[in-house]
From TrEMBL:
Keyword Oxidoreductase tagged: yes
FAD-binding PCMH-type domain boundaries: 1-176
Top-level taxon of origin: Bacteria
PANTHER family recorded: XANTHINE DEHYDROGENASE SUBUNIT C-RELATED (PTHR42659)
Protein known as: Carbon monoxide dehydrogenase
Signal peptide (from-to): none
Entry annotated with the keyword Secreted: no
UniProt cross-references to InterPro entries, sorted A to Z: Diverse_Substr_Oxidored, FAD-bd_PCMH, FAD-bd_PCMH-like_sf, FAD-bd_PCMH_sub1, FAD-bd_PCMH_sub2, Mopterin_DH_FAD-bd
UniProt-listed Pfam families: FAD_binding_5 (PF00941)
Xref: SUPFAM superfamilies: FAD-binding/transporter-associated domain-like
One Gene Ontology MF term: FAD binding
Record organism: Ancylobacter defluvii
Amino acid sequence: MKAARFDYLRPASVVEAVAALAQDAGAKPVAGGQSLGPMLNLRLARPSTLVDVSKIADLRRVDERPDGVLYGAAITHAEFEDGTVPDPTPGFLARVAHGIAYRAVRNRGTVGGSLVHADPAADWPTTLTALGARVVLAGPSGARELALEDFILGAFSTALADGEIVTGVFIPRCSPQARFGYRKSCRKVGEFAEAMCAVLADPARGVHRLVVGATEGRHIVVTEAAAVIADPALLDARLTAAGLAAEPATLRLHQKVVRQAIEQLTTVPETESLPA
């Protein structure tokens, strides 16, 4: 199947992109197109206009700060994987990026696009929520920031207002002693995850966060996770409340993935090489 007819615009700035979206209620922004492209071809999405933001300079910026790094929304997965952008963590971003789909997807897919799509089984929403990331938005009313757990409201649902676009994501700087566990279960490489968990332990900053993804709904976010890290069974009630107990096999899979992610806090060396 082919996409329905649409107009195409390539604005030169965020201001122009926001104006284009404001003028056409049926317009949608696009950057890498790795999620939107298939939806267009299946006619699950029928925008009147595609507003291509992939070449806007502000969305390709990287602003390194003492407390973290602000990445433009159009930074690709491959750029994180290859280390061509600074990493405020001890290598966690490259490790996660390496496991996203296939290299062809990573070459085109963007971090902003992943967050806006808000697929519960996607790597960045789970990972960056665990890292305490914040999204930066621009729209007709100006700019604003939201914690990622407040931005993603549920499966494929965000707090993005009409005419707004994600312009960047800020990732706080971890201490050199920070530990990170990430585990996802897929039937084969490149497929959507059936269960996933990201956990950050950074005692130097007093941060212990755990996030469960691939829940078919809103992520399970534990912002004070020290107790859960010590005893993963404490999370069982949250998993059940999320509806995962309806299928016992699904619940057991999520419980196992959570335990494996927590185990990585002590078993994965800080200088771990990327998986083959």
